[in-house]
Each structure stands twice: as structure tokens, then as C-alpha cells.
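Write out this protein's structure.
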Amino acid sequence: MSFAEQLKGLLYGAFVSLPMVLIAIVSFLGVTLGNLGLIMLSVGHIVIIPFLLFMVNILHEYFFPGSPYFSMTSSDLSYLVPMLATPGITIVAAPSPWIAHVTFFFTFLFTNALMLYLRDPSPSADPNKVENRKAQTMTAMILTIVTFVLLFAIRVSLGNEPMIGAIFGGLLVVPVAYGWYELTRACGARDADIFGILQKILPPNAKDDPPMTCVYSP
């Protein structure tokens, strides 16, 4: 097997398992950094999205049984864990787990950046820091949209995901992700600042005191 074929197989495997990689990274960073926004994002991936998929797929099987627009042939692209696939059978996929998790992730990121961009500065805020915040959040929003569109296009171009089902599923997950973000803010996260932008530009009096060490002096 040539190097190009090995690289192609590696990239393909990474693309198929992208949602699992995102969930693992978000969960790890959320716990280790104590970032409530990341923790709530991981909970959404682990609890909300599987429940949403379960309910939506039941409704699709009831109202649109056998519809080619909301179904796909089972393959390693159909599941988050390719080993679970049973080749050849037809499964409901509107959205597929891959589309649902990736849409949820990038919608949450975009909403976070948008809320930080629209945040009103405090009267004593440094104008340079305000401009810096807006520039960083605008960059984050653009990169989020471009990356999501690129991944979505690659997923559909592979031929296994029905276009209508992917678009419908994406539109279904977007308001769920936005609602979950608003719940995260209501739970006390500082604008669910998962980018850490706000923390870096807080005024000195809004930050915690630096850590201190008590040393015994005889």
C-alpha cells in the first residue's frame, strides 16, 4: 500500500469518526479546564442529540416509511462507530448521527461567538480591548461557518447521505443547539465563553486575585 493510499485511509477514518473526536476533546477540555460552556456542550452531545435522533427517527418511520429522502444505505458512514454498521440494510437518517453532532457543535460555537460580538461593553472598558474582542469573535464566526460548510459538502459528496435529509436534519438541530446554548447561559456560564475570549479581556478588577502561597518564616 502506497503512502498516498495510507494517508487517504487515515483521513477518511478521521472524517468518519469526527463527531466522536469532537465529543472526546470537548469533554476532556471542559473537565480539565472547569469550563462550564464546554461541559454543557459535551452534555448536549451525549444526552440531547441521541434523544433528539431517537424521537425524530421514530416520527420519520411513522410518517415517511421507506422515503428515499430520509433514509440511507447502512455503511461505515452511517454510524459514529463504523464497526456497528450492518452493510446493505436501509436505515432512517434525517438527520444522520454525523450530521446531527457536527451541526450541533458548530451551531453552539457560532452562537457563542455571536453573543460575545454583540455583548455591550462596560462604561469603563478599554476601547482597544473592545475592538480586539469584536475582531476575534468575527474571525471565529467566519471560520466556524466556512469549516462547517466545507465538512457538510464533503459529507454529502460522499454519496451516502441524502441531500434533503441532511439539510432537513441540519435545520432541525440548529434551534436545538441555540436553545441549549441559552440554557447554558442561564446556568451561570459567563456567556458560555468557550473560546476564552472574554476572560482574556476582562478588566483587572473583574478577575480573580492571583494565587498566593503562605511560607513559614521562623
